[in-house]
Amino acid sequence: MSKNVIIGAGLSGRGYLNRLLYLSKEETVFLDCDESLIRQLRKEPSYTIRFGSEREPLKVDNYTAYTITDERAITNIAQAERIFISVGADHVAELLPFLQAALQERDRRSLDILVAENGIQPSSPLAVLRSDSRIHLSEAVIFCTTLGQCDSLDILSENLDHLPYDSVALGHELPLYGFVQETHFSDLLERKIYTYNCISACIAYLGYEKGYTDYAEAANDIEITEKIKRIAEVINRCITTVYNVSMQEQTAFSEMAIRKFQNRNIKDTVARNVRDVERKLKPEERIRKPLSLMQEQGEYSRELLEVLAAALRYGMKTKELSQDWEKLVDFYTQGMCEEWKQVLHRCK
């Protein structure tokens, strides 16, 4: 049994990464800045992961936990064989000073660091660590949905034990349950964002406008289902060209995403999936990048433009975005053809 550190004891870290480590009979140390969460983990010797009716619950008890400012956090980094980072892509850079300080206390043993975040090149803020010959820095991508339960460490999870990781960057195979070597990882990560995350956003913003609160119910709405299928058809054509994958493989990929979101066993909310709209509307993110790919390849999806409009309206309503529709559309349609811009302007 080797020692693994998971930085980030939230839903993905606790409910997914550590689930795979537990099933691999591995020891885990959680580090987190949330003092109340760490106190709860230190108080309770186990937590339960439930999978609806698809699988028996899993009681997880292979962990200890410390705040990231605890001196024992440094000690555990110094002793670890692997570090997994699950703090949100926007917070990875904040860990660099901590990791650099911890590595000063470490001997010459090698150390695997896997950044398990959903984003484009989420490990890039830590790239300077690659100059240390001890460090194998890589990335993993999470497809599994994990949801918390009020005032509890317990997790409700999708029944999926499959974690692709960049085996080329890591330089070796990980002997862990559910960890899958991926030799074209950056392509997989981008395909995931432009397929899975795009479809997720479509369901969320269209569902929000139709008044849904339950995410799976929105995903099963007949009108929304037809729209996401039409969007997926165009995305699939673009993806097969850009990433040189077969239409069969990409179609199966998008259909798996739709089935995942329509799974009523996962009690997700529309509110959780629409939040943080400004980040989701960045040029390389789940809505605008697929639109860019479509424009580059002479494709068109009125439905995906409708989703962009719905996201903008959500941002205006919640005051996360500007209240001026014309300026808002002009800003978020930069690089788009004039015809598409006019479609958005008329969607107010």
TrEMBL record:
A single GO BP: mannitol catabolic process
N-terminal signal peptide: none
Coiled coil: none
Mannitol dehydrogenase C-terminal domain location: 189-325
Record's GO cellular component terms: cytosol
Database matches in Gene3D superfamilies: N-(1-d-carboxylethyl)-l-norvaline Dehydrogenase, domain 2, NAD(P)-binding Rossmann-like Domain
An MF annotation (GO) of this entry: mannitol-1-phosphate 5-dehydrogenase activity
Keywords noted in UniProt: NAD, Oxidoreductase
Pfam families, per database record: Mannitol_dh, Mannitol_dh_C
UniProt keyword NAD, yes or no: yes
Catalysis performed (reactions): D-mannitol 1-phosphate + NAD(+) = beta-D-fructose 6-phosphate + NADH + H(+)
SUPFAM superfamilies the UniProt entry points to: 6-phosphogluconate dehydrogenase C-terminal domain-like
Residues annotated as domain Mannitol dehydrogenase N-terminal: 5-127
Top-rank taxon: Bacteria
InterPro entries the UniProt entry points to: 6-PGluconate_DH-like_C_sf, 6PGD_dom2, Mannitol_DH_C, Mannitol_DH_N
UniProt keyword Oxidoreductase, yes or no: yes
Protein name from the UniProt record: Mannitol dehydrogenase C-terminal domain-containing protein
Protein source organism: [Clostridium] innocuum 2959
